[in-house]
Amino acid sequence: MILNILTLIFDLGGGTFDVSLLSVLHGKFVVQATTGDTHLGGEDFDDLLVDHCVKEFKKKYNKDITRNVKSLRRLRTACERAKRMLSPSVMTSIDVDYLYEGVDFSTRISRARFEELNKELFTRCTHLIEKCLGDAKMDKTGVDVVVLVGGSTRIPKIQQLVQDFFDGKKLCKEIHPDEAVAHGAAIQAANLIGERDKEVQKLVLVDVTPLSLGVDTVDEGMSVVVPRNTPIPTKLKRGFETSYDNQTSVRIAVYEGESAETKYNNLLGEFEIDGIDPAPKGVTKLDVWFDIDADGILTVSAKVKSSGQKKEIVISKQNGELTAAEIQKMIVDAAHYKAEDEKHKARISLEYLAEKLKSMALDSARSASEMKSMEDKAENAIAWLETNHHAEIGEINKQLKELKTSFPALCEEN
User: Fold this and answer.
1) In angstroms, rounded to a whole number, what is the distance separating the alpha carbons of residues 143 and 162?
2) CA dihedral 400, 413, 303, 206 (to 10 degrees)
3) 296 with 348, same domain?
4) Residues of 42-55 as b/e, b for ≥16 C-beta within 10 angstroms?
5) What is the pTM of this model?
6) Residue 391's pLDDT is what?
7) Whether 292 and 220 share a structural domain
């Protein structure tokens, strides 16, 4: 029986923290979801231990060393050494001769005290495991293997937290935590240059998109084509239409990010299709394709359905790639502004429906009274939007519901 093994990689290094969920089958590693914190790592544990010692030194000797760079550097070295010693030992000492103004510093630190100082950082680690599983829509009971990577996973409390999170599951610690990333990078590099070694060829990594990809809409909204954490390579399509009467050109602006508004996302590139035959709003249809290859190179193309006109843009990683810190910031910001994004989406929905009803009211097959009713309701909705810029989402949804209730059959057509 061939099994698809679901593996969680817990990578806590010196400066960053990453959690990835992969499915492994026949040497093919498919990333299901990935998340991380670019401001969490071994250095942060060192910082808190240094702060603890600085306070203790001031309490003992009434001397503040926070402005003395040399003293802080020497203290940090001693604290880092103590942190490492607390992995095999439950107690150690921090000793620095002539730390400041000829005064020696010596203190004892227990593993329990170290864990107490860093409890908030430990909590952040488990929260990110939950987030990664949530992004993949996976329960922790479905994880088969948990792999620890990175020097900071030697900390006993980290191992205990991860094991407790997975209800006592045995952790995979056979891989050298300091060498795992180098091994993986070497294998991926060998694959990229076409290495013929049979063992290397058996291993294939399928990555995912770290951020959603989409295009700008008329109202500066983000129309997502490729959702975040989509496995690559991939090719996805979304249909669009002209937004005003007699439109002869369409601008395609490509963004990445998690906000519903493009102004908060990252512009990757843009292009324009000219020479479109004039027609009423919404008549001319376009297909926009997002094609991402195994190397992460994105090709965006747009094609006018009626004429076959086509244009495209190629965006390489070098053109648009954000740093890990920037990616994480965009994800955090998107979560923070989620309420505003939902309100923005509701306004777009109401405006779109009102404009659609106005357009449908021109249909001569409808009675004069029906046409007038549709037009009046649509105009009232648009006027309400223009005079209620700061309306809450509940108020907007109420207007949307009233419009849909007035013309249920037409709204279903839409």
Assistant:
1) 12
2) 70
3) no
4) bebbbebbbebbbe
5) 0.59
6) 83
7) yes
Distance (Å, whole) CA 363 – CA 173: 69
For the chain, state the CA radius of gyration.
28
How far, in Å, CA of 275 to CA of 302, rounded? Answer: 14
Alpha-carbon span 271 to 235, nearest angstrom: 19
| 238 and 381 within one domain | no
User: What CATH number is associated with residue 54?
Assistant: 3.90.640.10
- Does residue 142 form part of some domain? yes
Chain centroid to CA 360: how far?
A: 39
At 69-98, the pLDDT tens digits run 999 999 999 999 999 999 999 999 999 999
* Residues 31, 133 within the same domain: yes
In angstroms, rounded to a whole number, what is the distance separating the alpha carbons of residues 223 and 253? Answer: 11
Q: What is the mean pLDDT of residues 252-264?
A: 86
**217 in the same domain as 248:** yes
Q: Which domain holds residue 326?
A: 213-333
Number of Cβ within a 10 Å radius of residue 66: 12
Phi, psi of 113 (to 5 degrees): -70, -40
**Cross-strand partners of 290:** 236, 300
> Quick one: 310 and 223 in the same domain?
yes
| Total domains in the fold of the chain | 4
Contact 371, 357 (CB under 8 A): no
Asked if residue 169 lies in contact with residue 143, where contact means CB atoms within 8 angstroms, the answer is yes
Judge if 222 and 144 occupy the same domain.
Answer: no
> How deeply is 115 buried, as exposed, middle or buried, from its count of CB atoms within 10 A (0-12, 13-18, 19+)?
middle
- C-beta of residue 144 within 8 angstroms of C-beta of residue 32: no
